[in-house]
């Protein structure tokens, strides 16, 4: 589960290049955490990236 439910940030793909310039596929996963947040007035557990948490797009439930 590497997808933010707020900004829809997901896995991105690219190529890892070694020192000898051999190329292989790799993935970058976003930093996604499962938090209890207020969604439509009710607390709910959602997967959110830490960028959305830090910027204040998500209000956490206590």
Q: What fraction of residues sit in β-strands? A: over 45%
Structural class designation: mainly beta
Low-confidence residue ranges: none
The end-to-end span amounts to: 24 Å
Let me know the number of strands: 4
- One letter per element, helices H and strands E, the order comes to EEEEH
Radius of gyration over all CA atoms, rounded: 16 Å
Strand order of the largest sheet: 1-2
Number of domains: 1
The helix tally amounts to 1
Q: What integer is the average pLDDT?
A: 95
The percent range for helix content is: under 10%
Characterize the biggest β-sheet: 2 strands, antiparallel
Cα shape: rod-shaped
Overview of the structural elements:
It is built from one helix and four strands. With 62 residues, the chain is mainly β. It has one domain. The strands form two sheets. Strands 1-2 form a two-stranded antiparallel ribbon. Strand 3 and strand 4 form a beta hairpin. It is rod-shaped, with a radius of gyration of 16 Å. It starts with 11 loop residues before the first strand and ends in a 7-residue tail after the last helix. The mean pLDDT is 95.
